Amino acid sequence: MNSDAYHAFMLDHASGALSNDMSLAAELHILLSGTGRETADIWSSTRDAVGLWANEVRALEHECLPEALELAVGDFETVPWKRGLSGVHYAKRGRGKGKLMRLDPGQAAPEHSHSALEATVVLEGQFEDGHGVYQRGDLVLGRPGIRHRPAAHGDNMCICYVAQEALPFWRFS
Asked: Which domain holds residue 146?
């Protein structure tokens, strides 16, 4: 993953600049990953030290936390999965267009790209996209125009939270 894109994303989260769907992805990453917690602490401390956005953001900082905690527990048995055209199963989550994606063992989606930033957080199993293999809690940022092929890695089902947001291209190019 591009380190600059990752830090820009996490700074946007600390400053309250992300949509609800993207904030949910950031909160999941923070809850499930030591790297996510460390990075969030750094950007929140920086924000507070500089004094920018502090009063406005503190009220919104963990607005997505209840839903993130629910998803982090991982009770996916009762999720109303719907099979997409590619065979991948999806379920709507979040307040916007965020969704859960389920890939059965050995299953992959067709190679594709997006016109918006895509944030994927692994909730269960392992995920690969042609650029790397990711574990529970990992945040994968798919920049606009970058081709990838999401797939379950290994012998277990993979469940991820996926959000997309059209952001200024210069932020993640």
From this structure: 82-171
Distance CA 80, CA 126 (A): 21
Closest listed residue to residue 96, CA positions, set 14, 13, 24: 24
Q: Are residues 103 and 166 in the same domain?
A: yes
Query: How crowded is residue 2: how many other Cβ atoms within 10 Å of its Cβ?
Result: 13
Domains held by the chain: number:
2
| Spatial strand order in the sheet of 82-83 | 82-83, 89-92, 99-103, 158-165, 117-124, 139-142
Query: CA-based angle 114:170:40, to the nearest 5?
Result: 85
Query: Is pTM beyond 0.85 here?
Result: yes
- Tens of pLDDT, residue by residue over 77-101, are 899 999 998 889 999 986 678 999 9
Among residues 23, 49, 73, the one where a domain terminates is 73
Distance of alpha carbon 37 from alpha carbon 46, whole angstroms: 14
